[in-house]
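FORM 7B: Structural annotation worksheet

SECTION A. Query
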Amino acid sequence: MRKEIKVAIQGVEGAFHDIAAREFFKESPIEVIPSLTFEDLFALLESGGCDYGVVAVENSVAGILSHNYFLLNEYSMQIVGEHYLRIVQNLMALPGTSIVDVKEVRSHPIALRQCHLFLNPLRERGVKVVESEDTALTAKHIAQNNMKGVATVAGDLAAKIYGLDIIKAGIESNCRNFTRFLVLKRKRQVEGTTTWSKDFMSNERFLSSSDQCNKASVSFTLGHTPGALCKVLEIFFSHNLNLTLIQSVPVPGREWEYKFFADFIFLESSSYKAALEEVAKVATSVTLSGLYCRGMASMQPFEVSHEELQ
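SECTION B. Predicted structure
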C-alpha cells in the first residue's frame, strides 16, 4: 500500500483548495493538512510539516492573488505543477431547508461577489448577506451549531463532508470562472547558487525532470535602465516562448525596485534554456522556480439561467 502524501491547503476540508488537491493528486492517496491562512501554509511547507502545498494564485474573474506572490518571493519554493479548477458555487444549508427558509447567507467575500446576480434578489427580499473567513469553514459551523435559517455559498464537497443540503447549485454569476492553483514543494538545499547561471543545469535535477514538461515559472530582477523589461520580453519572443503571466512585487528593503514573476509555455527545452541564458546577461538575477506540465481547464456542464435558479 502506497504511503499517503501530506498536502497542505488553505482552508478546511471541503474548501476549493481541497477539491483542487484531490483532483491533482487523484492517482495517489493523500492526507489533506488544513491551514487557516496562506502564511500558515507556507510556513508549514518550509518546516517540512507536509510534502506539498496547493496555493491559489489567480482567478479568471477576480484576477491575481497578489499576496501569494509576496509569499512566493519570501519563501523559496519549487513549483512542480499547476491545476485549473472550475469554480462551481452552491447555496447550501441544514437538511430540509428551502430557499424561503433562508434568512441569512454567510460566505467568503470573494464567493459572495462571484454570486451577486443570484444574491441580489435575495437581498431585496430582506435576506442578510454576511462576509465570513472561509466557504467550507462556514459550512462546518452551520452543521456543527445547527444554524437554522443560515445558508452558505461553497463547493459541493463541503456539502458532502458536513451533511448539508444543496438548495441551489451553480449560482455563480459567470460560468467561465476558473482558479489556477500552483502545487509547491520545499526546494531542496543545493550547493552553490539556485539562480540561473552557466552551471545551473547541474541543479536542474531538483526541479521536475519529466520529458513532458512544457511550462516554466521564473523570477527576475532588473536594474533601473531604459527598456530593461522590454529586452527580456524580446528574448522570450525570439525563442518562441508563450508568456502566460507576468507579475511584479516590490523588493523588500530596496525602495521602488521590483521582482518580476513570469510563466511561459515552450515547445522545446532548448528554447527556454537558451532564453534564460540571454536573460541572465541583462537581468540582475534570474531564478528558475519550476518546470512542469501545463494544466488544462475543463468546463463542467452548467447552462442554467439565474432566473431559473430563483
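SECTION C. Observations
The longest strand covers residues 77-86. The CA atoms of residues 79 and 290 lie 4 Å apart.

SECTION D. Sign-off
Analyst initials: ____
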